[in-house]
Design goal:
single chain, ATP synthase F(0) complex subunit f, mitochondrial, acetylation, mitochondrion inner membrane, CF(0), ATP synthesis
């Protein structure tokens, strides 16, 4: 027997078709609590995939260090942009 269809609001983003995207976005909960819960779910999934396994390797720490470097560069970009050598004509 075929499984019953899943409501659009219960689908993951990767399972949503392009035509269903506006309906799926409208069905999301945009409260601060829902945002914090989604951040917590993302953190838990990252931790379970890259930190919990006994042989996780360097992937998890490398991703965190890369994110830190990109974010810190973003914070000081305006200051670095002013220190460039320029040719004055």
């Amino acid at each position: 027997m075929a499984e019953p269809p899943v409501p659009i609001k219960d689908l993951r983003l990767l399972d949503v078709k392009l035509g269903q995207l506006p309906t799926w976005l409208a069905s999301l909960n945009y409260t601060p609590r829902a945002f914090l819960e989604s951040c917590k779910r993302g953190h838990n999934r990252f931790y379970a995939k890259y930190w919990e396994p006994k042989r996780c390797g360097i992937t998890g720490p490398a991703m965190l260090i890369t994110a830190y470097v990109v974010f810190s560069y973003y914070l000081v970009y305006d200051h670095l942009k002013e220190e460039r050598w320029r040719k004055y004509h």
